[in-house]
Write a structure and sequence with these properties.
CATH class: Mainly Beta
Number of strands: 11
Radius of gyration: 15 Å
Distance between the termini: 28 Å
Helix content: under 10%
Strand content: over 45%
Length: 131
């Protein structure tokens, strides 16, 4: 088995590991591991797409705080594809060599954690020209 074949994983929705709600408000622990160097918050409109690219090094964790989105992951290593629909309070990990495309089914808010900051000299973004 070569190293690249070990990168193929089946996407699965990730739900928060802990939450606490009391008279002060709500506290949700979304993710408890990872090499995150940057945190991004964004909003997207219904039927708009984001992604359709892959990274050779960067890892990411995408988490919906509001809305719904269909996530398509195509594994470059073996050519297989998976789709999953995420709702509020659900997320997904993206690994290197996974083409990820997010289609927003509703107006949505999200948080995106990335293992590396964007570097215009070495962007690590490779567009999927076949889709």
């Amino acid at each position: 088995m070569n190293n690249k074949s070990q990168l193929v994983t089946k996407p699965a929705a990730v739900k928060p590991s802990f939450s606490r709600k009391d008279d002060r408000g709500l506290f949700v622990e979304i993710v408890t591991e990872g090499p995150w160097e940057t945190v991004i918050h964004g909003t997207m409109k219904s039927q708009k797409k984001m992604g359709n690219h892959y990274h050779r090094e960067n890892k990411a964790f995408f988490f919906l705080t509001r809305g719904r989105a269909q996530v398509t992951v195509k594994h470059i290593v073996d050519g297989t594809s998976d789709e999953i629909v995420l709702g509020p309070g659900e997320g997904i990990y993206f690994l290197p060599f996974e083409i990820h495309t997010i289609t927003y089914l509703e107006d949505s808010d999200f948080i995106l954690l990335k293992s590396y900051r964007y570097n215009s000299q070495k962007p690590d973004i490779f567009i999927d020209h076949e889709s």
